[in-house]
Amino acid sequence: MSAAPAPQPESVTDLVEGLAHSARKAQRVLARMDSPAKEQALKLAATALRAAEADILAANARDMANGETNGLTGAMLDRLKLTPERLAGMADAVEQVASLADPVGEVISEAARPNGMVLQRLRIPVGVIGIIYESRPNVTADAAALCVRSGNATILRGGSEAVHSNRAIHKALVAGLVEGGVPAEAVQLMPTQDRAAVGAMLAAAGLIDMIVPRGGKSLVARVQADARVPVLAHLDGINHTFVHAAADPAMAKAIVLNAKMRRTGICGAMETLLIDATYPDPHGLVEPLLEAGCELRGDARARAIDPRIALAAANDWDTEYLDAILSVAVVDGLDAALAHIAAHASGHTDAIVTDDQAVADRFLAEVDSAIVMHNASSQFADGGEFGLGAEIGIATGRLHARGPVALEGLTTYKWLVRGAGQVRP
Amino acid sequence: MSAAPAPQPESVTDLVEGLAHSARKAQRVLARMDSPAKEQALKLAATALRAAEADILAANARDMANGETNGLTGAMLDRLKLTPERLAGMADAVEQVASLADPVGEVISEAARPNGMVLQRLRIPVGVIGIIYESRPNVTADAAALCVRSGNATILRGGSEAVHSNRAIHKALVAGLVEGGVPAEAVQLMPTQDRAAVGAMLAAAGLIDMIVPRGGKSLVARVQADARVPVLAHLDGINHTFVHAAADPAMAKAIVLNAKMRRTGICGAMETLLIDATYPDPHGLVEPLLEAGCELRGDARARAIDPRIALAAANDWDTEYLDAILSVAVVDGLDAALAHIAAHASGHTDAIVTDDQAVADRFLAEVDSAIVMHNASSQFADGGEFGLGAEIGIATGRLHARGPVALEGLTTYKWLVRGAGQVRP
């Protein structure tokens, strides 16, 4: 493909404003579609994705070839790669979102006032949602489907490395949606890879209602630092598991191993293990991790458990490894564990293992993270596992939505007031 | 499209960080206090406010004297002035907030997963809330009471013109709260009037969880433009009332007059009147407004109703007058009214007057503002009138909370997961 001249910043701002205005207009149409109509349109989109298999795989082959030329790592190429199976999974996921319960129209609360006015809070779509993401082309279909299901228009800005795949997926998806009555402008793909377009999206307060970044830490950090539009995102998952003195050793061993090693690269993976000083079998926790190939970095008391534990540096306690590495500290009981978590947790998912219900209750009450668990693996921190059917991401901010975010997190509400001529005295 | 806020003098940044850290610590204590304990502490704070009447009025007299010296307008002096009656009202308001239902601890949703894990979403305080406000010293007590009732720590930054009043009110309030077991650092008053402290609060992402600006448009606009911390605020109330062809003329006349003229300076006041072209008695709407001393600015069709209507300029349709001035347009039916509102409303409160239920239902469904009313005056847009007992403000943003915001808007939630040793397959 011959390189087009990069648009100037001003024209990029105009471009983004134009996209946002047409998205807003389309969203007003989408907002009036009922649940069965949106469901049907998404099913048609899934069918269109399947029908476009040859086109999408050909486009993906171009991206893969460019990626190899440009020296993408094996892991990046794997995230980029589409196969017939992965494409089928993408279409299945769109169908699954289609069949989720529609949150729009729910009456959140209702009350009559003494003067006879009736007030309702009605759940409605957020509006126009910008998605900024990196190499995985399946985000194009996933995010668009979640937005359409919840009545939101979306502006998608994927990574340059997946540009052909994203365009082919977007084209098929929109064809199916339009067949189902959704305006084409309800799902837009940024037509330029100019990086200034990301800046223009982040600055578009009032035009774009919410930005969801999906990608690595540097992408999310940039979005959080620069956005004038509200951002729904998670930056870090520095997740703790505290094995309390009264934990069942077999349960603790299984949870700790699973929380770290099931998949080390997901945001719900444990990054710090806190062991109560009076827990009877600390070596039983450490040994299976070492056997499974996990590198352990501990404080002096942890190193006394096993000499294979390296000495942790100060910043280890604030590091999300996303790898087979784990920080280990020995703490003196619940209060010390709570203090360590308050000082180092990133507000994602923290867990306790104990058979002492009163201790568990205090942990659940006092840990301030989006997800707090008792006797379960932190790897369950996931919208699907939480029964939400899907997720647009996990939010570690404190406002609007926390933890796994699916359809409800893509909605807001308005107040409806029904009167009979009331005027305020 | 502002860049990151200008770097603040290090000492002010350090000061704000110190306040925020001690507020966070105090908030953890406050979060563990039960509802009766918080209620009792607020009642003691109200008592302490009453007991400190002489001190507070003396401090206020200093502010009033300075204000006169510094040439504050009569309206500003009136907002600043405290009297025994106003102070009693302030203490009463704190007691009223004390007796509101505590939203903290509510189980928002609960579900068991097929693997036996039980999930709950539990309502919790937001955390540390910054309040940035101007001359009214009663905000010091109001905002602090709402934050304490909902388990939040607060950092108050009032205007320089009210500095002595705010300090005296804060001192009494905290003495009462401490007597009730609330840590003193849960309600902090910024110890400096250095304007850089506002910038440091706005930049304190992760330390302060939410900022609520309360004051004029320039304050709110600055906060919204510069904040890296989420902001709950409203900027404009460009509120429309659409009198539809099928409106009852007596009801329409009463609602229109009340929506504009009951109090012209509040954010719920109507700023634009839309009259359906086939409404039978347009002059009956216009005449009482003119008689009440309201200046009308209209389009050509509106001016045909009465020659006393001036010609509106283009920007009148986007102006919040907060005064006895009203824009008037004649529109061709519901669709034209909806289009005008979509183009010009600020997302605050928009109303329709009609006896046609189907038309009302479409208006309620399609207008996208925080509050949408049928057959009622927009002046009801108020937390007290909505039965919330009080309000920290009215939010016109789309996320977290919309419309009148009271205690629930000062909360968020966390997910609690209770397991029995589950690990993720």
TrEMBL record, chains A, B:
Entry-linked SUPFAM superfamilies: ALDH-like
A UniProt-annotated Pfam family: Aldedh
Domain of life according to the entry: Bacteria
UniProt-annotated location(s): Cytoplasm
Major localization class: cytoplasm
Pathway: Amino-acid biosynthesis; L-proline biosynthesis; L-glutamate 5-semialdehyde from L-glutamate: step 2/2
The enzyme's E.C. designation: 1.2.1.41
GO biological process assignments: L-proline biosynthetic process
Role summary: Catalyzes the NADPH-dependent reduction of L-glutamate 5-phosphate into L-glutamate 5-semialdehyde and phosphate. The product spontaneously undergoes cyclization to form 1-pyrroline-5-carboxylate.
Protein name, UniProt field: Gamma-glutamyl phosphate reductase
Originating species: Novosphingobium taihuense
Gene: proA
